[in-house]
Amino acid sequence: KPARVQVDPETIPQDDAPPQTGTVFNIWYNKWSGGGNQFQLVKSKYKLNVEKDSGYTRANKIDGQKYFCLFFAKGMCTKGRKCEYLHRIPNDLDFFPQTVDCFGREKFSEYRDDMSGIGSFNTVNKTLYIGGLIIKDNTQDLLNKEFRKLGKIAKINVINNKNCGFITFKNESSAQFAKEAMFGQSLYGTDILNIKWANEDPNPAAIKAKKRQHEEETQQVVEQLL
């Protein structure tokens, strides 16, 4: 089915809808996603409904590398089927150069000090830090319910006494997509999720296992594409 328009363009102020790439976008995204000192976490007015919002766009007719729509992930794309980016969630067959994320944005050599932002091209990171949680008996179940709509989950760990959690996806592109889709969202209505990249496990065995897993997954993708 054709992708639907998620938000009427008339209802979005111009400074809320810059181009998806380029210098203007980078300045705006920095402000919008927690960059800069004046950052204050604000609950998102929009939310992706994967079932209703997914559909084909102009990107489906393009040969070669395709990227996902950041605004679709945020639930606020005004273009619908006329969008030049993909309107669906990433899957096992989506493959991107390590220098960019699934939205086509260039990564950096190092993470930001606060682990927000686009991420590092020196690390394959599939784990998100979820801050701002209100801990209740069903928090882990709710996290699982919300995040599994966005990709296959390998592991969820909620740290009750720190009001935070960690979610590891099976694919890095799913983690990238979920980080944007769930940033500023709410589980209970009064909480606001602050999502960042998780720090790497310093355990040498964990680093070795992660490297081996990445090599195996790369091999699987290559075999699937042949």
Would you give an account of this structure?
With 226 residues, the chain is an alpha+beta fold. The chain has one domain: Alpha-Beta Plaits (2-Layer Sandwich), CATH 3.30.70.330. It is built from six helices and four strands. The protein has helices at residues 22-32, 50-53, 70-74, 139-147, 172-182, 204-225; strands at residues 127-131, 153-159, 164-169, 194-197. It has a four-stranded antiparallel beta sheet, with helices on one face. Strand 2 and strand 3 (164-169) form a beta hairpin. The protein is globular. The model is unreliable at 23-38 (pLDDT under 50).
Keyword list:
226 residues; alpha+beta; Alpha-Beta Plaits
What's the SSE blueprint?
Blueprint: H1 22-32, H2 50-53, H3 70-74, E1 127-131, H4 139-147, E2 153-159, E3 164-169, H5 172-182, E4 194-197, H6 204-225
Antiparallel strand pairs: 1-3, 1-4, 2-3
Number of self-contained structural domains? 1
Unreliable spans are 23-38
Q: Report the CATH topology name.
A: Alpha-Beta Plaits
- Compressed to H and E, one letter per element, the order equals HHHEHEEHEH
Discrete helix count = 6
Please state the second-level CATH architecture: 2-Layer Sandwich
Query: What gap, in angstroms, lies between the N and C termini?
Result: 28 Å
How does the helix and strand content classify structurally?
A: alpha+beta
What's the name of the CATH homologous superfamily?
A: RRM (RNA recognition motif) domain
Query: Looking at the structure, what is the overall shape?
Result: globular
| Range of strand content | 5-15%
Q: What is the highest CATH level, the class? A: Alpha Beta
Global mean pLDDT: 84
| Strand count | 4
The helicity comes to 25-40%
**Biggest sheet statistics:** 4 strands, antiparallel
Rg: 17 Å
Strand line-up across the major sheet: 2-3-1-4
